Structures are given as structure tokens and as C-alpha cells.
DNA sequence: GGGGAAGTTCACCGATCAGTATACCTGCGA
DNA sequence: TCGCAGGTATACTGATCGGTGAACTTCCCC
């Protein structure tokens, strides 16, 4: 049913997925053909289709894998914080780490820009990713004794997505966002 | 020198530009071929190339025209505000109007996602558009007697871009962003 | 030693891509 | 009346697109 859970992948399948992840992110999904992915992973196009069936499925796998990695990084960062209040800010610290190696913005926003068809699996994955982060913010805020976690979570998500969207600009928006997030968290969790 | 100022356009040229604007925004730039644009504007492909020379140039015209319209709407909204402090919030009200008819996110962010080549004219136009808004926020903040207009402007830009980026989500992020923006403006322009 | 899964090789499909060539038509202003 | 700009019609290029068919090898496990 779910097109993204038919693993485990074969060795060739893993190389294909790795090449697809880099190429799709760096050059855009519609800008990268299956022939290029096959070539970059040292594999025949036939093997690619034996493993993934279609380009759309490969795109779904690319986004799902990226989602998995991002959530893992965030969760690790959250778990490393000493106090609940520090934990609310953790996703912004994770974003700092993430942005060092991912400078082409948010892969999910980019995917939605390229694939207008709402029935494409990319839409479901991208929406789920954002809502997961929103929910995490809310949970963390509640754990930090914030009396109104919902609006705070939405504000933090806005800052988070705004940071990613302004990445191409010659401004250090991440620092600005983190500072403002800290202030918002502090004033929303008065105790 | 500038590929976007060789107007005025002929009647056919205007129809082409109008069709390109709608199709590029709704279906993505790489997802729309020149044949489709020619067909939608009731024009021959030859005429399209006589008027615009290349698809890349047509893309640049599309973005430049969109930029022009957005700035015009924002400026009109700003001018209609009674007090300088209200004026700082005006771009968010303009965004509310704009979003009624443009539901596929920010055309400039989308264009950057689809066109990874930094030398493509789209990058210059998109960057200029964001920096223009940042500068406008700063100018408006200064006019509202904000002692530190630069950080406030960056915060407002973050909220603005975050709103656009979260547009596909089933949340009313615009209201949240506007409320927070109002609070930030109020507390940054104490007098 | 037999069988099946993984992968290769290579040729092929129809469609679409951006862009061009050539010849023709039409209306308007000098 | 001439010329020219704007536009049409149609056909074409070479490249690339996503995807398939069929036969072959290689290796591991029963």
C-alpha cells in the first residue's frame, strides 16, 4: 500500500537511492532524469526500474528517507538537552547542523514546487513532515510548562520555515530566528 | 543588457506573457513546455520565439512581472495605512489579499527550487525581491520610530516567508504570523 | 547440481523537449 | 503603391524524457 516501505534494498538499490538523494536535492527533481541517476550510481537503468518501478516511486523514497534522517537528527538533538525549556529550542540547533551540508533549502518545499499534482506521494510526505515538526514543538512546549503550547508551536514553525525559505539570501537569518525563538519560548513559559 | 526590459510587448506578446505567468506558477517552470504556452495563448511557437527569444528569457519576464505586481500591491497597502506603525504591518495584509488567488506558494522560492543554476536570471530577480521587502520593512520600522529597525525587519521577513512556505499546510499560519508581527512591532516601537 | 534472485547488456518505444527553416498572409504607414 | 512589421502555417532538427523486452551472466543457497 505505501510505496515507500517495500525495503530492504539490495546493494545496488542503496547506491541508486543515494545517488537519487543527492541529485534530486542539488539539481531538482524534474531536472534530473533516470538515466543520470543510473549513471551516477554505476547501475543500469534496467536495475533501477527493477528496484523502484518508476521515477515517482523513487522520488517518494528519496523524500521519505530524507524525512527519516531529519527526524532522527532532531530527536537526537532534543534528547541531548538538559532542561525541557532547552529542548524546545533544539530543532533550531538541529537546523544549524543540517544547513551546513544542505544549502538548497527545504527538500519538501522544493518538491511541492516542482510537483503540482496534489495526488503525488510527495505531497503527503511533505505535509506529514511539517506537521510532525509542529506537533513536536507543541509537545516540547507542553513539557516545558507552557500554558498555551499550540500558538507557540505555530510561531516556532513559522520561524523554522522562514529560515529555510530565506536560505539563499546573504543574511544570517538562522541566528535571528533562533534568538527570537528563545525569546518567545522564555516569555511563553513563565514560571 | 537586462533581459527583462525590452518591452513594450505586442498584443500577441502580452497574451504569451499572461499564459506563461499562469502556467509557470500553477504547474511549475520545468513542467511547462513552450508548446503548451503557445497553445494556451492562441499563438504560434514561432511568434513566441520572435517575441522572447528563449524559454529562459520568458521565465525572467514572468518573474519580473510578478515582482512588479507584488510590489505594487504592497506599496498601495502601505500607503493606505493611517499611522507609520500600521504601515509596518501592511505587507502582511497585502499577503492576505495576494494569497486569495495565489495558493501555490512563493513563485520566487519555487523558481529557485526548480532552477539550481545560480547564474540563471531567476536567482537575481528572486533575491532582489526578498531584499526589497527586507529593506521596506526596515524603512517602515525606522519611520515608526523603532530604535533598532534592522533586527525587527529580519524578524518580520522570517514570518513573512514562513507564512508562504507553510501555505500548503491545513493551518491558518497567516493569522498567527500577523498577530506575532503586530506584537513584535508594538514592543519594538515603544514610545 | 539445480534454481532463483540480482544484475548486466543493448536495443528499442512513443512522446516531448527547446529551438529553427521556409514560405506565406495581412494591415498600416510613408 | 511599396515595404515592412507582426503574425500564421507547417514541417523539421537532434536530444532527452520515462519506461520496456529479451537474452545473458554471476553467485549463493537448498
TrEMBL record, chains A, B:
Residues 33-52 bind DNA. Residues 10-70 form the HTH tetR-type domain. Keywords: DNA-binding. Pfam families: TetR_N. One of its GO terms (molecular function) is transcription cis-regulatory region binding. InterPro entries: Homeodomain-like_sf, HTH-type_TetR-like_transc_reg, HTH_TetR, Tet_transcr_reg_TetR-rel_C_sf. The keyword Repeat does not apply. The keyword DNA-binding applies. This is TetR family transcriptional regulator.
Amino acid at each position: 500500500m505505501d510505496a515507500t516501505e517495500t525495503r530492504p534494498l539490495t546493494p545496488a538499490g542503496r547506491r541508486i537511492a543515494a545517488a537519487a538523494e543527492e541529485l534530486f536535492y542539488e539539481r531538482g527533481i524534474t531536472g534530473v532524469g533516470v538515466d543520470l541517476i543510473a549513471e551516477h550510481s554505476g547501475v543500469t537503468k534496467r536495475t533501477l526500474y527493477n528496484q523502484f518501478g518508476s521515477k515517482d516511486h523513487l522520488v517518494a523514497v528519496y523524500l521519505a528517507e530524507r524525512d527519516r534522517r531529519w527526524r532522527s537528527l532532531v530527536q537526537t538533538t532534543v534528547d541531548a538537552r538538559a532542561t525541557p525549556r532547552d529542548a524546545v529550542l533544539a530543532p533550531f540547533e538541529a537546523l544549524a547542523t543540517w544547513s551546513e551540508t544542505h544549502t538548497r533549502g527545504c527538500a519538501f518545499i522544493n518538491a511541492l514546487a516542482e510537483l503540482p499534482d496534489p495526488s503525488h506521494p510527495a505531497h503527503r510526505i511533505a505535509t506529514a513532515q511539517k506537521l510532525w515538526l509542529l506537533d513536536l514543538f507543541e509537545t516540547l512546549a507542553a513539557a516545558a510548562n507552557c500554558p498555551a503550547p499550540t500558538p507557540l508551536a505555530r510561531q516556532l514553525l513559522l520561524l523554522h520555515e522562514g529560515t529555510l525559505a530565506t536560505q539563499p539570501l546573504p543574511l544570517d537569518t538562522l541566528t535571528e530566528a533562533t534568538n527570537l525563538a528563545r525569546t518567545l519560548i522564555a516569555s511563553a513559559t513563565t514560571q
